[in-house]
Amino acid sequence: MLTHPHFNPVALTIGPFSVHWYGLMYLLAFTLFVVLGRLHARRRPELGWDGQQIDDLLLYGVLGVIIGGRLGEVLFFEPAYYFSHPLEIVQIWKGGMSFHGGFLGVLVAMWLYGRHHAKGFWAVTDFIAPLVPTGLAAGRIGNFINGELWGRPVSSELPWAMIFPWVDALPRHPSQLYQAAGEGVLLFVVLWVYAARPRPLRAVSAVFLIGYGCLRFAAEFFRTPDPGIFAGLVPGLSTAQWLCVPMVAVGIWLLAASRKAPGAVQR
């Protein structure tokens, strides 16, 4: 059985400024997006992406992630708390970012990017889908370093069971690491391999939706659920699981629709 090392959330201090691990994980996520984007563009030159376009895409994506992620946390998971403490809404360095909110924010940002740069919405989302999971992994590692979003209690016989001393003395699943491995590493490998060859338009986006939705739904059984606006709607299901259901449903529909129009290949 293990004990969480309780990292200092501040990675380093430079004069009056503090750099938090959570912020560094976001920086790592954005860096990986650019690096992988260039590699993906190089191996699939027919998609018509260059370095400058990827840099612009990142700017749109960053705004979508930060604004959408924070608003999702406020509206989906802790509306009562944040409406009572409105100044904390902007304190994103303390953590508290919803994937589902960030996902919606990125969709809006990608639509705006495509409209401004004369690229189809699905062409944009198909391109970025393989670039996203490594950022998700970095975010979950940030959660682990912060000691937040801990797992459900588990038998102490589990070799990697972990105690989070500031919570209680119960051994728990290190669910942040499960999510980093599943939604991050595993989903990245699947999408990176799948997107290496020409696919029908919308297919790569569909696989992302299905893959993330299923992996996150499963991970919630190991993670202490956040209260959220849908908590208690059905016993045993969390708000995050409810938000995953439409993701998977839309993903299945998109995949089926893409196969009915095989001539519309990623461009």
UniProtKB/TrEMBL annotation:
Record's protein name: Phosphatidylglycerol--prolipoprotein diacylglyceryl transferase
InterPro entries found in the cross-reference section: Lgt
UniProt record similarity statement: Belongs to the Lgt family.
GO BP field: lipoprotein biosynthetic process
Binding positions for a 1,2-diacyl-sn-glycero-3-phospho-(1'-sn-glycerol) per the UniProt entry: 140
GO CC list: plasma membrane
Chief place of localization: membrane
Function: Catalyzes the transfer of the diacylglyceryl group from phosphatidylglycerol to the sulfhydryl group of the N-terminal cysteine of a prolipoprotein, the first step in the formation of mature lipoproteins.
Record key words, sorted: Cell membrane, Lipoprotein, Membrane, Transferase, Transmembrane, Transmembrane helix
GO molecular function: phosphatidylglycerol-prolipoprotein diacylglyceryl transferase activity
Organism: Pseudothauera lacus
Gene symbol of the encoding locus: lgt
PROSITE patterns: LGT
Entry EC no(s): 2.5.1.145
Functional pathway: Protein modification; lipoprotein biosynthesis (diacylglyceryl transfer)
Keyword Transmembrane helix: yes
